[in-house]
């Protein structure tokens, strides 16, 4: 059968453009014993994918020019000669950016029966939710009564981190890029929200929002957000470094904050982490998150683009602030 996929046509310089992506049609072979055919229903676009478009050594191999892109996806088995994946099974994989594919089941997980939309396994029940949970519980060890600051707080990871911080008994301060996003976070109970685009001095705005200081910073942005946090961290504060989206499209190295000495002066712990290295804890996370979603204690917001042909536009939209919550693409195969 014919399948559609998106390949990396060229490596972006600065902000990605539509010219960096090319649709492609491929003929899939018939399935053999031990294999199954998947029709993708949903795919994820995530900021980390921008790093894989650069030809450099990192924690994961870069995308190859002319090869199909990869990322989280939810699909349905539509043909099968595999005993563990019968027809109708919904599966999660890292084989997004394509309409159909053949698999032997390697690195595939059958989804549990759930009333939740399958797309949530790309967001709050998937890698972004697990990232927020890991950063707060295992890296920063957030405690009740502490003050948490979350940057990029309306995104897939940040919005979950804010809600988990509230559930853990912390005061939560957030930073977003629009008044609309700020109002949404306030409706979720976030104590103070800064629209960083409307303030002249982010450090002063953060001091006003959290006069008692910051105990934990969940870092998604870098740059001036990191500098402002270092100014306002309390002694023995912890910084869980998840991402630095402000630098992902830079064409030259960004100078570091001038106040890094605060790490020493305030005796701070700064730790970067990759969520996949903590995946053995996923069952514990999934049990808790499933209960929070079912009870309404955590709300899952999604921004949905339609069709594989709009996947590149959805990805670029991540860097233009077009997403509230998790950005996903619904495939109309």
Query: What letter string, H or E per element, gives the SSE order?
Result: EEEHEEEEHEHEHEHEHEHEHEHE
Which CATH architecture of the largest domain? Alpha-Beta Complex
How many individual β-strands?
15
- Would you identify the CATH H-level superfamily of the largest domain? Medium-chain alcohol dehydrogenases, catalytic domain
Termini gap: 12 Å
DSSP strand content: 25-35%
State the low-pLDDT regions, or none.
none
The share of residues in helices is 10-25%
Largest beta-sheet details: 7 strands, mixed
Overall structural class, as computed from helix and strand content, comes to alpha/beta
Mean pLDDT: 95
- CATH topology name of the largest domain: Quinone Oxidoreductase, Chain A, domain 1
Rg of Cα set: 20 Å
- How many domain units? 2
Write down the overall geometry: globular
So what's the CATH class of the largest domain?
Alpha Beta
Number of helices: 9
Oligomer: single chain
Helices and strands in order:
Layout: E1 2-8, E2 21-27, E3 36-44, H1 48-52, E4 73-80, E5 90-93, E6 100-103, E7 109-110, H2 127-139, E8 147-150, H3 156-167, E9 171-176, H4 179-187, E10 192-195, H5 202-209, E11 214-219, H6 224-232, E12 233-241, H7 262-265, E13 269-272, H8 282-295, E14 302-306, H9 311-318, E15 326-330
Parallel strand pairs: 8-9, 8-11, 9-10, 11-12, 12-13, 14-15
Antiparallel strand pairs: 1-2, 3-4, 3-6, 3-15, 4-5, 5-7
């Amino acid at each position: 059968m014919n399948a559609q996929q998106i390949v990396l046509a060229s490596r972006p310089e600065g902000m990605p453009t539509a010219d960096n992506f090319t649709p492609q049609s491929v003929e899939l072979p018939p399935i053999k014993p031990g294999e199954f055919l998947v029709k993708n229903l949903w795919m994820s676009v995530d900021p980390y994918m921008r790093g894989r478009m650069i030809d450099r050594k990192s924690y994961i191999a870069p995308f190859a020019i002319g090869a199909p892109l990869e990322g989280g996806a939810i699909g349905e088995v539509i043909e099968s000669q595999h005993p563990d994946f019968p027809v109708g099974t919904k599966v999660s994989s890292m084989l997004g950016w394509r309409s159909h594919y053949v698999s032997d089941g390697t690195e595939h997980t059958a989804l549990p029966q759930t009333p939740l939309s399958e797309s949530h396994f790309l967001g709050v029940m998937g890698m972004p939710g697990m990232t927020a949970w890991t950063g707060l519980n295992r890296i920063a060890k957030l405690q009740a009564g502490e003050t948490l600051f979350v940057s990029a707080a309306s995104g897939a990871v940040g919005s979950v981190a804010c809600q988990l911080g509230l559930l853990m008994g912390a005061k939560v301060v957030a930073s977003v890029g629009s008044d609309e996003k700020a109002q949404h976070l306030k409706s979720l109970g976030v104590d103070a929200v800064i629209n960083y685009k409307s303030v002249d001095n982010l450090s002063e705005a953060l001091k006003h929002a959290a006069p008692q200081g910051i105990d934990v910073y969940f870092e998604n942005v870098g740059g001036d957000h990191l500098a402002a946090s270092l100014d306002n961290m309390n002694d023995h504060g912890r910084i869980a470094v998840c991402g630095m989206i402000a630098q992902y499209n830079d064409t030259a190295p960004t100078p570091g904050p001038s106040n890094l000495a605060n790490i020493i002066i305030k005796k701070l712990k700064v730790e970067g982490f990759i969520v996949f290295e903590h995946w053995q804890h996923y069952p514990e996370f999934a049990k808790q998150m499933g209960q929070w979603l079912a009870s309404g204690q955590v709300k899952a917001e999604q921004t949905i683009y339609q069709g594989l042909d709009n996947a590149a536009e959805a990805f670029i939209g991540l860097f233009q602030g077009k997403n509230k919550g998790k950005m996903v693409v619904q495939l109309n195969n």
